[in-house]
Amino acid sequence: MEIEQVSAERREGGSGRKIVHVDMDAFYASVEQRDDAGLRGRPVVVAWKGRRSVVCAASYEARRFGVRSAMPAVTAERLCPEAIFVPPDFTRYKAVSRAVREIFERHTDLVEPLSLDEAYLDVTENKLGLATATRVAKMIREQIREELNLTASAGVAPNKFLAKIASDWKKPDGLFVIQPHEVQGFLMPLPVGRIPGVGKVTEERMKSVGIATVGDLHAMDHPTLEQHFGRYGRRLYELARGVDENPVVANRSSKSLSAEDTFEKDIPLAETEPLVRRLAEKVWLASRQNARMARTVVLKLKTKEFSTLTRSLTPLAMPTSAEMLGDVAVFLCSRVEFGPEQLFRLVGVGLSTSRWRRRRGRRCLGSL
After folding, report:
1. What residues have CB less than 8 Å from 274, skipping those under 6 apart?
2. Does some domain include residue 11?
3. InterPro entries in the record, alphabetically (predicted)?
4. Which is deepest, 24, 128, 303, 360, by most CB within 10 Å?
5. Binding site for Mg(2+), residues?
6. Is 264 a known active-site residue?
């Protein structure tokens, strides 16, 4: 099916926009399998071996054994003894990412990269004059396959929130479309864990107050959701109605870049270092492509009680490697004044072009 033209008036699930979210399938691992025929059809794990290393990517053959990104490499090796470990080649991945970006820009200038392997595109108006967003998404996927010998999954919807869900619906190598008039029927039966940003901890917290599906969320009023989830409650209220007014912003990363992960279970600060370093690698790669002048390093943490805090540092000289960026981010962890019993549900690392005020011993609400 193809997205229908709708009015620009704000209504449940409708924004007048046509948004495509493109997500490359197992990107780093797929590039390795493409370039080495001996790896095709085999469980490939992109990671350095070692106690402190984490998985950057896993092929779908490895995922069948439970191997996932951000998992410690030693855990991946235990789950899949036959896995082939390949050290990451970020220079090559970045070059492929640029080629994918060039394909996007044939269709629209409104491209908002989230990382090397995914991006939002606003194709309400597209350069080739294709009649629908669905046709644009189909052509992009065909061009990626034919020119780069890789596959991508895409979601088409009236806004970014829905497009993100849709791109994951038929992975790998899939295309899924959510029509404006289908939004509520699609959302209501979904488990709340399908909402981007709702991890296992939040999902369990929702279940404790009787929320298991988006329909359950939709049935709760705004004040009740804010009572249980603070400011995030307002966002949940809107998402349950398919409403997301955030536009696609091209070149957002020219001012700042960040990456974050929500843990499967709450962990103490001392256990976050491998994930902090992995996020630093991800941000560093993106910064080489998009934000060369950024040098203020920002650490973001969210406690199990949903309090958010940030720490930042502007070094005298720009970080010159992912390792150096990781070292600064890990140092910022030491400036978090919580006891060892405090648990955290999310960590983020960012680079910003602006100098942040130094905040010592003080919580700071807000995102990177």
Report:
1. 52, 53, 54, 72
2. no
3. DNA/RNA_pol_sf, DNA_pol_Y-fam_lit_finger_sf, DNA_pol_Y-fam_little_finger, DNA_polymerase-Y, DNApol_IV, IMS_HHH_1, Rev_trsase/Diguanyl_cyclase, UmuC
4. 24
5. 23, 117
6. no
Q: Sign of the C-alpha dihedral, residues 24, 30, 32, 35?
A: negative
Main-chain dihedrals φ then ψ at residue 232, nearest 5 degrees: -65, -20
Average pLDDT, the chain: 85
Q: Residue 361: inside a domain, yes or no?
A: no
The catalytic residue among 61, 118, 260, 281 is 118
Q: Are 351 and 291 in contact (CB under 8 A)?
A: yes
C-alpha Rg value of the chain to the nearest Å: 21
Q: Read out DSSP for 16-81?
A: S--EEEEEETTHHHHHHHHH-GGGTTS-EEES--STT-B-SEE-HHHHTTT--TTSBHHHHHHH-T
Distance CA 61, CA 79 (A): 12
Q: 188-241 pLDDT, tens per residue?
A: 999 998 988 787 778 888 999 999 999 999 999 999 999 888 888 889 999 999
Q: What separation in angstroms does the CA of 182 have from each of 20, 72, 171? A: 16, 40, 20
pTM for the structure as a whole: 0.70
| Nearest Cα residue to 235 out of 222, 224, 248 | 222
**Binding site members:** 23, 117
List of residues 6+ apart from 243 with CB closer than 8 A: 10, 12, 13, 15, 159
The CA distance from 151 to 59, in Å, is 12
Which DSSP symbol is given to 5?
Answer: P
Question: What one-letter code names the amino acid at 235?
Answer: R
Q: What is the CATH number of the domain that holds 213?
A: 1.10.150.20
| Across 290-315, average pLDDT | 80
